[in-house]
Amino acid sequence: MRSSGRQIPVVVLAGFLGSGKTTVLNHLLHHSGGSRIGAVVNDFGAIEIDAMAVAGALGDSTVSLGNGCLCCAVDGSELDEYLERLARPSAGVDVIVIEASGLAEPQELVRMVLASEHPQIVYGGLVEVVDAAEFDATRARHPEIERHLGLADLVVVNKLDRVTDASRVLDPVRSLVDRAAVVPATHGRVDPELLFDCRPSEERVGQLSFDDLHRHDRGEEEHTGHLHAAYDSLSFVSGRPLDPRRLIRFLDSRPEGLYRIKGYVDFGPYDARNRYAVHAVGRFLRFYPEPWAAGEERLTQLVLIGTGLDTTALREELEACGSDGAPHVDEHGMWGVLRYVQEPGDPGDPGEFGESGDLGEPGEPAA
Ligand SMILES: Nc1nc2c(ncn2[C@@H]2O[C@H](COP(=O)(O)OP(=O)(O)OP(=O)(O)O)[C@@H](O)[C@H]2O)c(=O)[nH]1
Which of 279, 303, 305 for a ligand 1 pocket mutation test, highest count of atoms within 8 Å of Cβ? Predict the structure, then answer.
């Protein structure tokens, strides 16, 4: 129900693991013109990597619901508390974006927003981000994606730079949505206007009827059917720098079920100035060096998510990637890592050539 006064739309940004939700959110934060976006970042895994990735851009207007999946919350009260905080006039927020964990059930999140009793909060629509390069594989493994697309108000088909024929993804996506807009994108570059305009009518909320949304049948049984019930995740934190060669060997031989790796790596003396953000999605792997902040604790923090993972063995393998603290580094040690660093203006994408191990001998890395 609407009330008088300033209404703040709450947009739910969902999508499968690694599809580009954080990238879309960051794009919105940097291109929202005069509007101020409040963000709720819902992470999966004990370390709030996503919250770290969007931090800085947001200052006080981001809140993170770390440690678990929002749709598993017993009730929406925690979410409500954050929405309340962001909706205060002093925050000056025009729109709130909830970035769902890649494993969240969008329908549950939509229900929670609708259940919010805050008079200024109004549901602003469901945006689903799709990884164009992984669409067929994801659909084969997780047919639920079809239902999620059917619920969406706006679908961002992201990573089109990684496919040769965009229509091979756009056409099936269009056939799965009903009235939702399907927006092609690379690097999450969507017009913010699209999101803030996608507020659904009061009568219709995406493809969900109000009866659907207010149905309260979230028993354990239904819950185990959620996408994330079948996933394993591992959080790895270490104060000991990693050896780049060992880490690359680990990544080269990562099991197929290890679908997503994200976080930050400290290579110690191999590059004392930078930490390396790492993103692996399926076969795609990329490192992004970024300077350590002054006084920042030098830590490696990784979250690994996948199916059928032997998390104990993976943890041991990661431990074994620790550097043995040799007094001097070997000058070629970083080559393997640098092959996965994209230089500005470099359209090349090593991930498209196959597994990291398929790349043959490394060339001289750019300085
Ligand atoms: N080539 C390419 N890479 C992209 C694009 N958009 C995002 N990426 C990369 O894909 C990886 C995953 O992007 P994220 O934005 O972290 O994805 P996410 O959906 O938030 O991931 P989870 O939080 O794990 O669900 C990162 O390495 C991004 O830089 C794109 O359009 N093209």
Answer: 279
Q: Which residue has the higher pLDDT, 180 or 340?
A: 340
Closest to 111 (Cα-Cα) out of 76, 66, 147: 76
Which helix (H) or strand (E) segment holds residue 147: the answer is helix 144-151
39 within ligand 1 shell (Cβ under 6 A): no
Please report the ipTM that was assigned to this predicted complex: 0.98
Long-range pairs for 344-352: beta carbons < 8 A, 24 or more residues apart: 347/161, 349/161, 349/162, 349/284, 350/285, 350/286, 351/162, 351/283, 351/284, 351/285, 351/286, 352/162, 352/284
Nearest C-alpha neighbor of 86 from the set 77, 78, 95, 99: 95
**Comparison of pLDDT for 327 and 96, the residue scoring more:** 96
pLDDT tens digit sequence for 67-109? 555 555 545 667 788 888 888 887 778 888 888 876 667 888 8
Q: Is 281's C-beta closer than 6 angstroms to any atom of ligand 1?
A: yes
Mean pLDDT of 4-24: 84
pTM beyond cutoff 0.80: no
Q: Is 186 in the pocket of ligand 1 (CB under 6 A)?
A: yes
Domains (range + CATH), the chain: 8-224 (3.40.50.300), 231-359 (3.30.1220.10)
